[in-house]
Amino acid sequence: MSIENLKAQLPAYAKDTKLNLGSVTTTSNLTDQQLWGAVLACALATRSARVIAEVSEDAAQRLSEEAFTAAKAAASIMAMNNVYYRATHLIGDETYATLPAKLRMTVIGNPGVDRTDFELWCLAVSAVNGCGRCLESHEQVLRGAGLSRELVQEALRVAAVVNATAATLEAEAALAAV
């Protein structure tokens, strides 16, 4: 099991990350599709080849081909949107928020899976990428679709733990190369 491989690779000082990785992937109230789509999309957002390889193996066993592709699409579209919307927000001139983005984003309207699941994955990726404007937007859509704050929080926990796993393993690899 690949999550188990990641846990085994985490150093002793990252015991909390190891325990959290186990718990977010085994005790979630999210559906399997919501959970594993979020895990995969967040792994892709970390850009860690090691985490992507391990997570994608588990995700491929738990997601349909359509859901696997949609999780990849969520990571891809949010890699673009998070940069754009974070930048327009950070500039501090709200006029930019009124201008059309002129970026193609059709996958958000037709992701090939349940739209709420896709929005949840976009929210989780936005947490990894640190885009407040996108977090606000996707959270509003999810709450409007009836998703509880507790389930939104679970997606955020997944994002945090997958990101911490990637950061720790990448740091260890860099230190080992010194």
Describe this structure in words.
The protein has 178 residues and is mainly α. It has 10 helices and no strands. The longest helix has 29 residues, at 149-177. The two termini are 30 Å apart.
Give the beta-strand count.
0
Number of separate structural domains: 1
Q: Any idea what the CATH superfamily is called? A: AhpD-like
- Write down the overall mean pLDDT: 96
- Strand proportion, as a percent range, falls in under 5%
Helix content: over 70%
What is the 3D shape? globular
CATH topology: AhpD-like
Q: Helices and strands, in N-to-C order?
A: HHHHHHHHHH
Over the alpha carbons, how many angstroms does the gyration radius reach?
Answer: 16 Å
Q: State the helix count.
A: 10
Assigned CATH class: Mainly Alpha
Which class of secondary structure composition applies to the elements?
A: mainly alpha
- Straight-line N-to-C gap: 30 Å
> What's the story with the biggest beta sheet?
none
| Secondary-structure arrangement, i.e. CATH architecture | Up-down Bundle
